[in-house]
Amino acid sequence: MKTDISELGLAIQSPLAIPSAPNYRPPCWPPTLDWPVVIDANGDVVSRWGDSTWQLYPWAGKSVTLNFGDGPTKKMATPINPENANLLRIITGWWLYGPNGARGYRSLKSRFDQMRRLFALCAQEGILASDLCRFPRVVDRIPEIIQSSRSLEFLALLHELYERRESLGFILLDRGRLARLAASLPEHHTRQTPYIPPRIWNYQVSRLRECLDDFLAHREQVEKCFCFCLDAYRHNFATTQGNLNHPFKWPSDGQSGKLTGRRYYGPFIETARRFGIADLIERWLGVSGNDMSILALSSYLSYVSRAGLAYLLNFSLMRVEEAWNLRTDCLQVEHDPRFGDIHVLRGRTTKTLSDDNALWVTSPSAELAVNVMRSIAHLRAQSVSTEQVARRRKNDSSAPYFIDFEQEPWGQRRIKVKLNVRPTIPSYAHTIQKLNSLFDPEELRILPADLTLARLATPTLSDEYEVGKIWPLAWHQLRRTGAVNMQASGLVSDASLQFQLKHVVRAMSLYYGQNHSRIRLEEKAQTLYIRTMYEILGRHLQELAHDRFSSPHGLKRKSEIVRLISPTETKKMIALAKKGIVAHRPILLGVCTNRTPCPYGGIDNIAHCGGGDSLDDSKPCPDVLYDPNKFNEVAALEAILDKRLAAADEGSPLKASLEAQKRSVENYRHVIQKPELR
């Protein structure tokens, strides 16, 4: 095995991975079984080379485990025999210490999980992974065990390991076997993240807001009740030398507690009623009477915090990992001379580049969720012991997290919290299941109109999304739906949704789409917005080729406008939109296809669009395409024009302008009523 030790060194991006660290560079390759692979901030060894699992929480800030499979059997981890597990350790160690080592724990975990599947297969077949080339039938089974979405990535990992065969000391697959594997890999068809239909999106946002508003309406009562319960537990704990006697249960010996100094208040439901929160907890948790134990108070606080998390994700382009790690001081307001106050969330992102001060533009209504989650975080911080607070401040001087481990003394099980570990993030589906009174499943059932709108934004929807089925909500859907809704360019016309978004879209679009702000926005969120902008524009361009749109100058002119547009080639349309070769600008009468800025208006004045400003011979704009679906909007405009005309002074410029727009409305109606022009 030929390895230059001086080339080895931890590549993980972590304050703990420094050249002076005891685990930075192994003295030999492969290291001995007692080599400390992971060491925490206190200098304690967390995982050694020969351990069956490596715990990465000092680097990740949350529980991340690499299970080599040669330890105690677990349901979720396929066992691997010791010989293969040792080979897997060498590969994983090389990804840690080698010249091109993993810089983030996520990439290391991703590589490990993919490679582990191969070693589990070898263990099941009773062969060593280093002898894999001798067993072609086992090699042929590899496509069965790997994710099709990761197949090319997995092939690249195997190729890299082959190139490093001298350093590793063994080969998994040689060039011939790699070529055979590449030919057998299935083609992977990627699917776009689903866009949540407006009705369903609006329903879940409305319910989340209702939950947050209800908490704020009872905030003082909740805080007083929590502090009362905390004092009650601390008092009984202090009077029993560490043996906790629950103050919300009558003592088993029938004594009142006067002789011992302990205090008892009977079932918790009585305390909840006294503080005026019994109905609140029953409404959201669905528990009442003696079923409402002190644990219900903690459950309710967690319930509201999760609702706040979902609300923030609905009104920002954050990933759930980023929102999960927001702190109580995350909200800041920037004043823009054009749009006034712009609300921004500040947090940490580690997706491509690590940035502890990334920024996401959000809705002013996000302040509601921030206030609620901050209140709960500060409330729960009182449960943490003085010693724990001092240790946390020593290790992390930042503001508290919105969401952290529950540390109330009445918890079912007290968790020994590691200071640099974060709680595991639940899925949105799991959150909804836990908060079973939050959403009515029938409101999430897909209607024909829902599916039509969803497919406009996501044509590749799977069979999971069908009329009559419950829409399977997921965190990542909120991010994509937010990007599409920020476009709000005619695809979404639901009135209630527009009401929710009207104070958000323009400001957020300005900041993400035009780089108007001087602040540095989170890069991936901005990229998602821009990519979605072109996707939506590409789909709108495809619609122009359909019979629905007509040119006031006839079919020949429409054909000239849409000559480059294909109603079926979405990627081509997105490319044309990015290059600016074709244009799509929604106006009152339909769509303007002029690629240059229009000096006549079209948004607030349709005189030129419909040719109403030409008294001699009515000549509408050559770049306009009329949309009959705009008829109701145009009719509403006509009613406004009639009222203003009745009050306008004769011969005034205002009356001339209103009359010109009135003629444009008449021209529009004349054209859309002629099918032969489409």
Explain what you see.
This protein is mainly alpha-helical and 678 residues long. The protein contains 26 helices and ten strands. The chain has helices at residues 57-60, 82-97, 105-125, 136-139, 142-145, 151-163, 165-168, 175-184, 198-217, 219-239, 268-274, 278-285, 295-314, 320-324, 366-381, 386-395, 428-434, 448-457, 475-487, 495-501, 505-514, 523-544, 555-561, 570-579, 631-647, 653-672; strands at residues 36-39, 45-48, 53-55, 65-67, 331-336, 340-349, 355-362, 585-587, 590-592, 624-626. A three-stranded antiparallel beta sheet has the order 5-6-7, sandwiched between helices.
Question: In a few lines, what is going on in this structure?
Answer:
This protein has 678 residues and is mainly alpha-helical. The chain has helices at residues 57-60, 82-97, 105-125, 136-139, 142-145, 151-163, 165-168, 175-184, 198-217, 219-239, 268-274, 278-285, 295-314, 320-324, 366-381, 386-395, 428-434, 448-457, 475-487, 495-501, 505-514, 523-544, 555-561, 570-579, 631-647, 653-672, and strands spanning 36-39, 45-48, 53-55, 65-67, 331-336, 340-349, 355-362, 585-587, 590-592, 624-626.
Q: Separation of termini?
A: 74 Å
> How large is the count of helical segments?
26
Strand order in the sheet with the most strands: 5-6-7
* Low-pLDDT segments: 489-505, 511-520
Largest sheet: 3 strands, antiparallel
Which structural class is indicated by helix and strand composition? mainly alpha
Radius of gyration: 32 Å
Oligomer: single chain
Portion in beta strands: 5-15%
Shape: globular
Helix proportion range: 40-55%
